[in-house]
Amino acid sequence: MAGVEVEQPNMENHIRNLKLAGHVGFDSLPDQLVSKSVQNGFVFNIMCIGETGLGKSTLMDSLFNTNFESAPSPHSLPSVKLKAHTYELHESNVRLKLTICDTVGYGDQINKEDSFKTVVDYIDTQFEVYLQEELKIKRSLSTYHDSRIHVCLYFICPTGHGLKSIDLVCMKKLDQKVNIVPIIAKADTISKTELQKFKSKIMAELQNNDVQIYEFPTDDESVSEVNGNMNSHIPFAVVGSTDFVRIGNKQVRARQYPWGTVQVENESHCDFVKLREMLIRTNMEDMREKTHCKHYELYRKKRLEQMGFSDVDADNKPVSFQQTFEAKRTNHLQELQQKEDEMRQMFVVRVKEKESELKEAEKELHAKFDKLKKEHTEEKKKIEEDRKKLEDEIIEFHRRKSQFQQMGSSHHTLTLGKSKKK
Ligand SMILES: Nc1nc2c(ncn2[C@@H]2O[C@H](COP(=O)(O)OP(=O)(O)OP(=O)(O)O)[C@@H](O)[C@H]2O)c(=O)[nH]1
Ligand SMILES: [Mg+2]
């Protein structure tokens, strides 16, 4: 780049508005985008958190007007688990790859302290898998099945008493990781006046505990009014059903009781339609975007910082990825060199230690050998003396023996001579 000077213009001042003399065609860009998106299909991942039997599966069937054929869970699991299933749905010419991730055994344990852990881990794992794909040299994000959770429907038990501590703890742990939409499950079991109080109580509790829930966006003019209005109805009180009842000449999803019928899609009976409208028809794309731009971004930032990357150096000056990488590499090499030196020094010290230990042992062995040698010489000397003494004694014995024999024979002769005289 030597000799080339690039003038950095102030872009704002340099942009000029020009008129086209005729139709060029880039006004079809939005259509091109739509066509491409339709061709690729869409991915949407829902997580349902709620106690066993709170109506999670029934609500999913009602929301997507199908039967996902899920089996009920037992109440006896020792810990919370997650069960994810992916389905391919078609509406008109739009393909939707839908993943429903359900909690199993949530709220069934005596100790509920760690109930949120499985959920947090699952969400983090999906972010991590995406990050690893993104960091690959040869990445295939266009064909990658994005499993990051776009919305978490938190099913609140219709007690009328407010939130349970497990609800608050879990939502607090998740609020920076996923778009939380709290809903009151089985809302047909709570009366109209109680419901309003219950809703206010829940919202107050969420606010007091600083739990950030997903708010329908109001920055887009086309939906700001409806979204703003819907925000005031949160948490939606929903009813689900797999049964259909004939009302007039129409078959509608409903729950039948001895005293009457609760229609799932009747806005005066429950907020099901509001939930479907907000979740699927109006804000699905916003939730997908927020997941990527807000929650994933936060996860990515934290993980990269954990790995030692940053956009600024110690003096708060901008630093590039490459610079950080090179600094880290140099640092790493230095550390490695230092470790090698330390090991070498340690090796020398250990060798010296061993050497002196061996010398000491050799010295001890020599001393032992000398002592043994001395003892041996002394013993030998003593034995020699004893032997000599014994030899002397034998000589003396023999001398005395012969002397005695001599004396004996002369005495015998004498005695014999005397007897002859008689
Ligand atoms: N009253 C009432 N009952 C409901 C509602 N939704 C579901 N149920 C009933 O509650 C029971 C459990 O419903 P599911 O949809 O299987 O609940 P779930 O949360 O998926 O249960 P698990 O998957 O076993 O944890 C069924 O008998 C449903 O008919 C509702 O809105 N109101
Ligand atoms: Mg279920």
TrEMBL record:
Residue spans making up a coiled coil are 322-400
Q: Which Pfam families match?
A: Septin
Domain Septin-type G, chain residue ranges per copy? 40-306
Keyword NADP found: no
UniProt-recorded Gene Ontology molecular function terms: GTP binding
**What InterPro entries does this protein's entry cite?**
G_SEPTIN_dom, P-loop_NTPase, Septin
Provide ranges: composition bias, Polar residues: 403-413
Give a yes or no for keyword tRNA-binding in this entry: no
Keyword tags? Coiled coil, GTP-binding, Nucleotide-binding
What residue spans carry the region label Disordered?
402-422
Per the record, the similarity remark reads: Belongs to the TRAFAC class TrmE-Era-EngA-EngB-Septin-like GTPase superfamily. Septin GTPase family.
Q: What PANTHER family does this protein map onto?
A: SEPTIN (PTHR18884)
Q: What is this protein called?
A: Septin
Question: Could you tell me which species this protein originates from?
Answer: Agrilus planipennis
